[in-house]
Design brief:
The structure is a single chain. This protein has one domain (about 10-170). Helix content is about 10%, strand content about 35%. It is built from 1 helix and 11 strands, in the order αβββββββββββ. It has one helix spanning about 10-25; strands at about 50-55, 65, 75-80, 80-85, 90-100, 115-125, 130-135, 140-145, 150, 155-165, 170. The strands form 3 sheets. Strands 7-1-4-5-6-8 form a 6-stranded mixed β-sheet, with helices on one face. It has a 3-stranded antiparallel β-sheet with strand order 9-10-11, with no helix packed on it. A two-stranded antiparallel ribbon has the order 2-3. It is globular. This is Spore coat protein. It holds the Pfam family Spore-coat_CotZ. Keywords: Capsid protein, Virion. InterPro entries: Spore_coat_protein_Z/Y.
Protein backbone atom coordinates (compact mmCIF):
# COMPACT_ATOMS: atom_id res chain seq x y z
CA UNK A 1 0.00 0.00 0.00
CA UNK A 2 1.43 3.36 -0.94
CA UNK A 3 1.61 6.15 1.61
CA UNK A 4 -1.62 8.07 2.11
CA UNK A 5 -3.62 6.12 -0.50
CA UNK A 6 -7.13 7.24 0.43
CA UNK A 7 -8.91 4.62 -1.73
CA UNK A 8 -7.63 1.60 0.19
CA UNK A 9 -9.11 -0.12 3.22
CA UNK A 10 -7.54 0.35 6.64
CA UNK A 11 -3.93 -0.79 6.81
CA UNK A 12 -2.60 -2.93 9.63
CA UNK A 13 -1.03 0.03 11.46
CA UNK A 14 -4.33 1.91 11.49
CA UNK A 15 -6.18 -1.20 12.65
CA UNK A 16 -3.61 -1.79 15.42
CA UNK A 17 -3.86 1.81 16.67
CA UNK A 18 -7.66 1.64 16.62
CA UNK A 19 -7.44 -1.54 18.72
CA UNK A 20 -5.00 0.12 21.15
CA UNK A 21 -7.39 3.07 21.49
CA UNK A 22 -10.29 0.71 22.26
CA UNK A 23 -8.22 -1.08 24.91
CA UNK A 24 -7.13 2.19 26.53
CA UNK A 25 -10.71 3.46 26.51
CA UNK A 26 -11.90 0.25 28.19
CA UNK A 27 -9.75 0.89 31.26
CA UNK A 28 -11.92 2.20 34.07
CA UNK A 29 -9.73 3.47 36.94
CA UNK A 30 -12.64 4.44 39.15
CA UNK A 31 -14.68 1.27 39.31
CA UNK A 32 -12.87 -2.08 39.18
CA UNK A 33 -16.18 -3.90 39.76
CA UNK A 34 -18.00 -2.26 36.85
CA UNK A 35 -20.42 -4.51 34.98
CA UNK A 36 -18.46 -3.57 31.87
CA UNK A 37 -15.17 -4.95 33.21
CA UNK A 38 -14.16 -8.59 33.27
CA UNK A 39 -15.29 -9.51 36.78
CA UNK A 40 -14.51 -13.23 36.36
CA UNK A 41 -10.89 -12.72 35.37
CA UNK A 42 -9.70 -9.46 36.90
CA UNK A 43 -6.13 -8.45 36.28
CA UNK A 44 -3.84 -6.10 38.11
CA UNK A 45 -4.14 -2.56 36.83
CA UNK A 46 -1.01 -1.68 34.84
CA UNK A 47 -2.08 1.73 33.62
CA UNK A 48 -4.13 3.32 30.90
CA UNK A 49 -1.48 3.58 28.21
CA UNK A 50 -0.18 1.08 25.68
CA UNK A 51 3.05 2.65 24.43
CA UNK A 52 4.17 1.93 20.89
CA UNK A 53 6.76 2.66 18.23
CA UNK A 54 5.96 3.46 14.59
CA UNK A 55 8.16 2.57 11.62
CA UNK A 56 8.25 4.53 8.38
CA UNK A 57 7.94 2.95 4.94
CA UNK A 58 11.78 2.94 4.83
CA UNK A 59 11.94 0.95 8.08
CA UNK A 60 13.17 3.84 10.24
CA UNK A 61 11.72 4.73 13.63
CA UNK A 62 9.35 7.69 13.41
CA UNK A 63 10.27 10.40 15.93
CA UNK A 64 8.66 13.62 17.11
CA UNK A 65 9.82 16.54 19.21
CA UNK A 66 8.28 17.85 22.43
CA UNK A 67 8.66 21.16 24.26
CA UNK A 68 10.23 22.85 21.24
CA UNK A 69 11.43 26.30 22.29
CA UNK A 70 11.34 25.15 25.94
CA UNK A 71 8.34 27.40 26.64
CA UNK A 72 7.20 24.97 29.35
CA UNK A 73 9.38 23.64 32.20
CA UNK A 74 11.87 21.01 31.05
CA UNK A 75 14.10 20.50 28.05
CA UNK A 76 13.15 19.98 24.44
CA UNK A 77 13.15 16.24 23.72
CA UNK A 78 12.95 13.81 20.82
CA UNK A 79 10.98 10.58 21.13
CA UNK A 80 9.86 7.57 19.10
CA UNK A 81 7.39 6.55 21.86
CA UNK A 82 3.69 7.38 21.55
CA UNK A 83 0.28 6.97 23.16
CA UNK A 84 -2.87 7.15 21.01
CA UNK A 85 -5.33 9.86 22.06
CA UNK A 86 -7.76 9.84 19.13
CA UNK A 87 -8.23 8.12 15.76
CA UNK A 88 -10.53 9.48 13.11
CA UNK A 89 -12.29 7.53 10.33
CA UNK A 90 -9.71 8.62 7.76
CA UNK A 91 -6.93 6.94 9.82
CA UNK A 92 -5.54 10.27 10.96
CA UNK A 93 -4.66 10.19 14.64
CA UNK A 94 -3.66 12.38 17.53
CA UNK A 95 -0.73 10.83 19.37
CA UNK A 96 0.75 12.12 22.60
CA UNK A 97 4.50 11.99 23.00
CA UNK A 98 5.97 9.84 25.77
CA UNK A 99 9.23 11.21 27.19
CA UNK A 100 11.91 8.46 27.37
CA UNK A 101 13.93 8.63 30.60
CA UNK A 102 16.44 6.66 32.62
CA UNK A 103 16.20 5.99 36.39
CA UNK A 104 17.46 9.49 37.15
CA UNK A 105 14.82 11.17 35.01
CA UNK A 106 17.29 12.13 32.28
CA UNK A 107 16.02 11.98 28.71
CA UNK A 108 17.43 9.06 26.73
CA UNK A 109 17.97 8.94 22.97
CA UNK A 110 18.86 5.24 22.64
CA UNK A 111 15.69 3.12 22.77
CA UNK A 112 17.47 0.31 24.62
CA UNK A 113 18.58 2.67 27.44
CA UNK A 114 15.03 3.74 28.31
CA UNK A 115 13.82 2.66 31.75
CA UNK A 116 10.57 4.64 31.91
CA UNK A 117 8.22 6.53 29.65
CA UNK A 118 6.60 9.65 31.08
CA UNK A 119 3.28 10.90 29.73
CA UNK A 120 3.31 14.45 28.39
CA UNK A 121 0.78 16.91 27.02
CA UNK A 122 2.70 17.27 23.74
CA UNK A 123 0.85 15.84 20.74
CA UNK A 124 1.35 15.22 17.04
CA UNK A 125 -1.18 14.62 14.28
CA UNK A 126 -0.29 11.73 11.94
CA UNK A 127 -1.75 9.85 9.00
CA UNK A 128 -1.47 6.22 10.09
CA UNK A 129 -1.56 5.03 6.49
CA UNK A 130 1.93 6.46 6.04
CA UNK A 131 3.53 3.86 8.33
CA UNK A 132 4.43 0.27 7.53
CA UNK A 133 4.89 -1.21 11.02
CA UNK A 134 3.96 -0.73 14.66
CA UNK A 135 5.56 -2.26 17.75
CA UNK A 136 3.59 -2.33 21.00
CA UNK A 137 5.51 -2.13 24.26
CA UNK A 138 4.80 -3.17 27.83
CA UNK A 139 2.36 -0.75 29.56
CA UNK A 140 4.43 -1.02 32.74
CA UNK A 141 7.04 1.26 31.13
CA UNK A 142 4.68 4.24 31.45
CA UNK A 143 4.40 6.35 34.59
CA UNK A 144 2.08 9.31 35.02
CA UNK A 145 4.50 11.29 37.14
CA UNK A 146 8.20 10.70 37.50
CA UNK A 147 10.22 11.81 40.49
CA UNK A 148 13.87 10.84 40.77
CA UNK A 149 15.11 11.33 44.31
CA UNK A 150 18.82 12.04 44.51
CA UNK A 151 20.60 11.41 47.77
CA UNK A 152 22.93 14.41 48.24
CA UNK A 153 25.48 12.34 50.21
CA UNK A 154 26.32 9.75 47.59
CA UNK A 155 24.47 11.07 44.51
CA UNK A 156 22.34 7.90 44.17
CA UNK A 157 18.83 7.76 42.86
CA UNK A 158 16.44 7.10 45.71
CA UNK A 159 13.52 5.78 43.71
CA UNK A 160 10.63 6.30 41.41
CA UNK A 161 7.29 7.66 42.47
CA UNK A 162 4.17 6.90 40.47
CA UNK A 163 0.51 6.02 40.86
CA UNK A 164 -0.52 2.58 42.05
CA UNK A 165 -3.59 0.74 40.74
CA UNK A 166 -5.95 2.90 42.83
CA UNK A 167 -4.42 6.29 42.01
CA UNK A 168 -2.46 6.46 45.30
CA UNK A 169 1.14 7.70 45.27
CA UNK A 170 3.78 5.09 45.92
CA UNK A 171 7.53 5.22 46.21
CA UNK A 172 9.70 2.43 44.88
CA UNK A 173 13.45 1.86 45.37
Amino acid sequence: MSCCDKDKDLNCVCEAVLNIKDLQDAVDDDCPTSCFSNLLAPTQFVGDTIPFLLYTKKGDLFKAFGNVGELLPGDCFKTPFFRVEDVRKDCCATLSLLRPVDGRGSCKDDVCDVERLVRTDFCIEVDLRCFCAIQCLDPRLVVRNFVADIDDDDDKVGGVEDDDDRGRRRHRH
